[in-house]
Design goal:
Number of strands: 3
Radius of gyration: 15 Å
CATH class: Alpha Beta
Helix content: 55-70%
Shape: elongated
Strand order of the largest sheet: 1-2-3
Structural class: alpha+beta
Low-confidence stretches: none
CATH topology: GMP Synthetase, Chain A, domain 3
Strand content: 15-25%
Amino acid sequence: MFERIQDLITFTANKEGIKRQLDAALICSIAREVIESDYPKLSDYSTVRFFKNNTLYIGTKNSIVSQEFLYKQAEIIDLINQRLDSNPIQKLSLTLNRNSLD
């Protein structure tokens, strides 16, 4: 008779065709948390943009931050995927945004 709310949300998301968008939003949220907690200096100069096709897109304020992300890419991906209990992120894509990270 009673169903778990998570099951209802999953069913409705599948029915309405928005499950991928909800999953992407969750991945971005967890990625932000991981970067803020484990890499606070990188967090100050970057922002998680979006997730698509197993790639997490991140905007950075300068090329030094981009290089640091590339250097730590495997470690960052592993930490995020561990929090998700799956491996949706296969790579990072970095974009240089000198003017703003909003």
